[in-house]
Amino acid sequence: MDHRDILIDAARRPVDSARQVLDGIGPEVLNQMPDGEHSSIAWLIWHAARQQDAQLAELSGGRQVWLEQGWAQRLGVHRAVEEIGFGDSPAEVATVRVTDPALLGDYLQAVVARVVDHVEGLSPADLDDVVDVRWDPPVTRGVRIVSIIDDAVAHVAQAAYLRGLLENWRIGY
What we know:
Blueprint: H1 3-22, H2 27-30, H3 41-60, H4 65-68, H5 71-75, H6 90-93, H7 101-120, E1 130-132, E2 139-140, H8 141-167
Antiparallel strand pairs: 1-2
């Protein structure tokens, strides 16, 4: 299997899982913050997409899908472009309220399509390029790609778990 095939398969998996989580969900469950403190399903899936979008734009030197395709307006989420969810307080989490769950899945899919496009153009040597020297050891392109995919997988899995708790729902594999 080619290195690109592995990364592309991994990148696409959160989209499939998110679609299942969002299928048939009502806005009250989608936006519910357990105990008024914890992340909602909407925030978890929004963040899964936003962090990939922002980090990939930085990695590739391109523009964020969030800006390029007008996702803030389409989703009705008005956060500054640099606000992607890392370190959000409960009040900031509460600002991510979405009325159309399918649109949230569409945003994640649009971001993952951009990830796939980026990965398709990479050689094995490109994965070894150092892209961030703020860490020890420095972060390579391959490690960063795995990191943004891993973060998306984790947050979509949290969304699935949360829907299960709120509605006694199970993801269907």
